Amino acid sequence: MRRIATLARLELTADEIETFAEQLSAILAYAGQVQQVDTSGAAAATTAELHPHFRSDDLAPCLPRDVVLKQAPDADRSAGVFKVPRVLGS
């Protein structure tokens, strides 16, 4: 749990670590039970079959890149990219 907290950049108390470790163990035990269910007779389904109300992925016009970059707080317009704060490895 300490390793997961470190990776997620969470500062947890000893009580929280103990509580979350118990909860995570219970979740993983349940996932193990689910993996043992025999699904050999079940037909595969796609997301579209499960959720027929989803819209189709039709191409549509979007905002021009120059307009968007002019509105961005920190963008490199010459490179055509946004600059964002570093997240990994910082």
Q: Low-confidence parts, pLDDT < 50 over ≥5 residues?
A: none
Look at the structure and give the mean pLDDT: 87
Binned, the helix content reads 40-55%
The CATH class of the domain at 1-36, by name, is: Mainly Alpha
Radius of gyration: 23 Å
Using the 3D structure, state the CATH architecture of the domain at 1-36: Orthogonal Bundle
Beta-strand content estimate: under 5%
Coarse morphology = flat
Secondary structure: number of strands:
2
Report how far the terminal alpha carbons are from each other: 21 Å
* Quaternary organization: single chain
The helix/strand series, from N terminus to C terminus, equals HHHHEE
Structural class: mainly alpha
What is the CATH topology descriptor of the domain at 1-36?
A: Histone, subunit A
- DSSP helical segment count: 4
User: Major sheet, described briefly?
Assistant: 2 strands, antiparallel
Give a short synopsis of this structure.
This protein has 90 residues and is mainly alpha-helical. The chain has helices at residues 2-7, 14-35, 47-50, 65-71, and strands spanning 75-76, 81-82.
Write structural notes for this entry.
The protein is mainly α and 90 residues long. The chain has a domain at 1-36: Histone, subunit A (Orthogonal Bundle), CATH 1.10.20. It is 43% helix and 4% strand. The protein is built from four helices and two strands; from the N terminus they run H-H-H-H-E-E. It has a two-stranded antiparallel sheet with strand order 1-2. It is flat, with a radius of gyration of 23 Å.
List keywords for this structure.
90 residues; mainly alpha; Histone, subunit A; flat
